[in-house]
Design a protein that fits this description.
Distance between the termini: 28 Å
Largest sheet: 7 strands, mixed, barrel
Structural class: alpha+beta
Helix content: 25-40%
CATH class of the largest domain: Mainly Beta
CATH architecture of the largest domain: Beta Barrel
CATH superfamily of the largest domain: FomD-like
CATH topology of the largest domain: FomD barrel-like fold
Low-confidence stretches: 82-89
Radius of gyration: 20 Å
Length: 289
């Protein structure tokens, strides 16, 4: 009921509001990943992330967004509140993402795939037929949709400078960021050895339904080997696609801008973003299987 009420109020907003979404939960928590709460200047409009002091922290943080602050993640640690008599205090830790609410956010919220579902990804590459991949959704929120591919359907392996970075049948954890011009994959060898981080520069994902989305690869990629800085790949491929009329010059410029921003973010320590740092192969396998 809380979830339906939040979406219903989000669809007909008549006042400034902030949407709070639990993006990860560890241990015993009153609400689980995906739970939402809509907050107005005067307090909760609809929904809950668990009540108690933890929810109060989220409501307080939301006031900063009404003052023009950026979207942020609030860490709610319930393990310290041993003196509370609230049944909402369970002894776990939640990360709650807060952002200003708007009509576009409602459309995105109803189309995001739910955790536990299988999503169908329609992946286009310039000059090639659309490929369809199916992946398990591990976590779904406005900041990132985390999916798992237990066995990469590739042959031969993907290599960089003669070394395999993703082998046939190896696991991949993917991170899709709503509205962003890139995704991120955590690559492994077939035996589960982590090799590094791979980012595809692509058009922002179009969520067709809660079970399907589509995007177009823009040729450029970033490869960051484990414990080493990233390198830009496939610049020649993008230039060829532009020359062949498969990618427009404006879109190509946006792709190069995105790649440059990621490289700058890595140098500044702000990229990859927090959701990527939270996941490992062991956690993905536990969540999926």
């Amino acid at each position: 009921m809380d979830e339906r009420e939040v979406l219903a109020r989000l669809a007909r907003l008549a006042e400034p509001a902030v949407l709070a979404t639990i993006v990860s939960a560890k241990g015993s928590t009153p609400r689980k990943t995906g739970a939402r709460m809509l907050i107005g200047r005067g307090g909760v409009i609809a929904g809950t992330v668990g009540g108690g002091c933890g929810e109060g922290e989220v409501i307080e943080a939301a006031q900063g967004l009404f003052a023009g602050g950026p979207p942020t993640t609030v860490r709610v640690d319930l393990t310290d509140d041993f003196t509370s008599w609230s049944p909402a205090v369970c002894g776990g830790i939640m990360n709650v993402f807060i952002e200003r609410a708007n009509p576009e956010l409602f459309d995105r919220a109803v189309r995001l795939p739910p955790a536990g579902a299988e999503v169908e990804i329609h992946y286009r590459r310039p000059g090639r037929a659309t490929e369809v991949y199916r992946q398990a959704v591990l976590e779904s929120s406005p900041r990132a949709v985390v999916t798992f591919q237990p066995h990469a359907p590739i042959d031969p392996p993907i290599t960089v400078a003669g070394s395999a970075i993703l082998e046939p049948g190896a696991p991949v954890i993917w991170f899709t960021f709503p509205g962003a011009w890139h995704d991120i994959g955590l690559f492994h060898l077939a035996d589960g050895t982590f090799t590094g981080l791979y980012a595809n520069i692509l058009t922002p994902v179009e969520f067709l339904s809660p079970r399907a989305w589509s995007t177009t690869d823009l040729c450029l990629d970033l490869w960051a080997p484990r414990n080493r800085p990233p390198r830009l790949l496939d610049e020649a491929d993008l230039a060829e696609a532009v020359a062949a009329g498969l990618v427009g010059k404006d879109v190509a410029a946006r792709a190069r801008q995105e790649a440059a921003a990621l490289l700058e973010g890595f140098a500044a320590g702000s990229w990859p973003p927090e959701p990527v740092r939270e996941w490992s192969l062991a956690r993905a396998r536990e969540a999926c299987c």
